[in-house]
Amino acid sequence: MEPILSVQNLNKYYGDQVGCKNMNMTLYPGEVVGVVGESGSGKTTFINSISGNLNPDRGKILINKDNEIINFLEISESLKRLLIRTELAFVHQNPRDGLRLDVSAGGNISERLMSIGQRNYGNIRQTIFKWLDKVEIDKSRVDDFPRTFSGGMLQRLQIAKNLVTSPKIIFMDEPTGGLDVSVQAKILDLLRKLVRELHLSVVIVSHDLAVIRLLADKIIVMKNGEAVESGLCDQVLDDPQHSYTQLLVSSVLQV
Amino acid sequence: MIELNNITKKFTLHNQGRTNISVFKNLNLKINPGEIVALTGPSGVGKSSILKMIYGNYVFQSGEIKINNYKIDYKYPRNIIELRKNTIGYVSQFLRVIPRVPTIEIVMEPLLEINFDQEEVRERAEKILLDLNIDKNLWNLSPLTFSGGEQQRVNVARGLIRNYPCLLLDEPTASLDNVNKDIVLNLINEKKDKGSSIIGIFHDESSRKYLNAREIDITKISHAN
Amino acid sequence: MNNVLKFKNKKANVVAQDEIYNFAYLDENTKRMIRRALIKALCIPGYQVPFSSREMPMPYGWGTGGVQVTSSCLTTDDVLKVIDQGADDTTNAVSIRNFFKKTANIETTETTGDASIIQTRHRIPENQLNEKQILVYQVPIPEPLAFLEPRYQETKKMHALSEYGIMHVKLYEDITKNGHIETAYAYPVKTNDRYIMDPSPIPKFDNPKMNNNPAIQLFGAGREQRIYAIPPYTEVTSLDFEDYPFDPSKAPHKCSICGSNDSFLDEIITDDDGNRSFICSDTNYCNQRMKDK
User: Fold this and answer.
1) Of chain A residues 36-95, which have a CB less than 8 A from chain B?
2) Closest-CA residue in chain B for A185?
3) What's residue B44's pLDDT?
């Protein structure tokens, strides 16, 4: 099997300041890669750089689209944005960043459908209901505005909005960040289910090792903009080799 | 078949004065298909560590581990993921699951990786849960609130729902009463008869005898320190 | 300069004070700049061309964009008609007509067929226009995406890359809320199968008239400093859904003056008891019909 996304030697600087450097990653279809590290370690810079939100300074991002390798940093802006709305999806930590708050829940979900040319209201409506069901939002809320939703529901709505066009690669930046623990568990469960059912490939950033342990197959540990250790998720967490990873793992409170 | 050749394993604790803890030196071990190996030795000697190395969960510094002639290398996580998906089953000592996920779904999960027929998978999960005496009323609840014995059995159900060529069992019967212990041991025997290479840790002598396991005392085969 | 000379030669009886204005108020360099924007706009139908909008002797919202476009198009031979919501006799229409009468000393008319340039606020005349005519629209907000995407930079990108999914979100919301597309004016269109365009706040009833129109259609937004255009015989389609097709509906009544069944109607409250009647919004069309009878 070929990787669906491969990042090679990626560098992003903010002036003289290192955002992230010498980053490498391979993501296979159906795989979840977790990126961990303390605040300021470059996790968010990294995920933004590989998802088209930021322009990295150096490096390669190769996306496999139906066996055609696309050099993401060298294609035209229009093709890039087309990929972003069809093949890729980005789930923000704050769902308000990924949703239109003055558009109904259904309208939010419909946007990506219509941007790829769907013009049949009835069909669009059906797809919306299917996705509300998938993310466990009651159908009766379809015409309500997101501002009437709870934090957990907003996040689920954002997930539905992003996944409705069946993108292949999902980027998530602290998707359970602002949620209370019980809601967090439901979202994690939902994400895991979707990953398996839809065979999604996911890059997820979190400072919460427990979240990464539950979701990720592979892990990248970042410090000061660089990957200090990477590998199989449970191996890195259970038998960390790098001193920083050991510190990180031993700093987690046991419940 | 599982093979361990000349394995060296140590832990380096960087944040505690770079302490080196040597666990194994020149460890050799071989488990044939249709065979059950039981690891013995005092606690802390590294019984679980062997299972974890085979599962790709622990790094070893030198030597090689081969699963059906395939070499384990932690530098290629992708291969270990594939190996776990297709070849190695692992019943850990403790159940580790996402809160709020119903028992039945936890048990179904390993099978869903290779079989996409939800209904068929559900039937098989129900059957193994019935075999293991898990009350039907509990199937739709998260096992996190179950008793130790029940959690253990859910863990076993999840590990044994598939027929893996290699099975790693870490105290699968530790907190079970005698009736349930026999059920689990019988399930393990079934897997052996189907040709699995099985390596496990069983704290009680009677279980090891029941399984007719080849006992290996780790202190005798590895020379740490 | 040429225009100024011609202007002086043609009408000798101009009041001296008015000669301090250049022909049609704007100076020649400004008009040239606007004409360049107009030509660019005609070349790229529906595309919003930025231009350096001038202060006009009237407030924003009174048609400063339209007036600048008209000023740049006028020649001494032109005959100007100005309508406001279809009517020739409302304040705005009368003022702008007088403005050009004064500054350009050109001929004006109320008859659609006689005009060579028609400046309009929020209507398209009922009578079919011809190839010799220019229709100048006054536009308050030229950006059709503005209500959905507040970032101007982002809307530019969306136009450039034809990312128009969001336009349909608005229509989706309409259908969801009302069971049909409620947008009744400024109904978005696609021009020449490329750019999505705000047709200015004309009723959607007028949308089909933009399609394949023989006249040149120019749009000027003074405050927002944008010019866009539809060249003659250009395809203009209104956005819709397959199962909710565009419907250029109007009030289901007849004009209570001329009895027309197919012109756009204004609703008039006739007394304190709430009685009302409907009359043609295009006054010239209505008068013409009455005359013909």
Assistant:
1) none
2) B99
3) 85
Domain count, chain A: 2
Judge whether A30 is closer than 8 Å to chain B, CB to CB. Answer: no
* C168 found inside a domain: no
Q: For residue C273, tell me if it sits in a domain.
A: yes
C267 and C184 together in one domain: no
Judge whether C86 counts as a catalytic residue: no
Which of B15, B74, B101 is nearest residue A231 as measured by Cβ atoms?
B74
Q: Is C46 a catalytic residue?
A: yes
* Residue B46 sits at the chain A interface (C-beta within 8 Å): no
Q: C181-197: per-residue pLDDT in tens?
A: 988 999 999 999 999 99
For A147-159, the pLDDT digits (tens) are 999 999 999 999 9
Sign of the Cα torsion A129, A133, A135, A140 reads positive
Residue C255 among the catalytic residues: yes
Measured CA distances, A194 to B117, C35, C143 (Å):
16, 56, 38
In DSSP notation, C262-293 reads SS-EEEEE-STT--EEEEES-HHHHHHHHHH-
Task: Single out the residue in A152, A167, A182 at which a domain terminates.
Answer: A167
The pLDDT of residue C16 is 42
Note whether C282 and C138 are same-domain residues.
Answer: no
Range of the domain at C292: 252-293
Query: Is A77 in Cβ contact with C243 (below 8 Å)?
Result: no
Query: What CATH number does residue C138 fall under?
Result: 3.40.50.11310
C290 and C227, same structural domain?
no
The answer to whether B13 faces chain A, any CB pair under 8 Å, is yes
The pLDDT tens digits of the residues spanning B152-209 come to 999 999 999 999 999 999 999 988 899 999 999 999 999 999 999 999 999 889 999 9
Residues of chain B short of pLDDT 70, as ranges, are 223-225
DSSP letter string, B96-133: ---TT--HHHHHHHHHHTT---HHHHHHHHHHHHHHTT
Q: Which domain holds residue A111?
A: 84-167
Q: Is the CB of residue A166 less than 8 Å away from at least one CB of chain C?
A: no
Residues C201 and C290 grouped into a single domain: no
- C86 φψ region: left (φ > 0), alpha (ψ -120 to 50), beta (else): left
**A28, A189, A246 ranked by CB distance to B15: nearest:** A246
The one-letter amino acid at B132: L
* Dihedral (Cα; B131, B134, B138, B143), 10-degree rounding: -110
Task: Tally Cβ neighbours within 10 Å of residue C194.
Answer: 14
CB contact under 8 A, C165 and A85: yes
How many domains is chain C partitioned into structurally? 2
Q: Best interface-test mutation with A: which of B51, B57, B72, B141 has the largest number of A CBs within 10 A?
A: B57
Chain B: partners with 3+ C-beta pairs within 8 Å: A
* A133: number of Cβ within 10 Å: 12
The arrangement of secondary structure in B2-221, i.e. its CATH architecture, is 3-Layer(aba) Sandwich (3.40)
- Please check whether residue C197 lies inside any domain of the structure: yes
In a domain, A111, yes or no: yes
Which residue of B57, B100, B112 is in closest CB contact with A239? B57
C217: nearest Cα among C247, C191, C178: C191
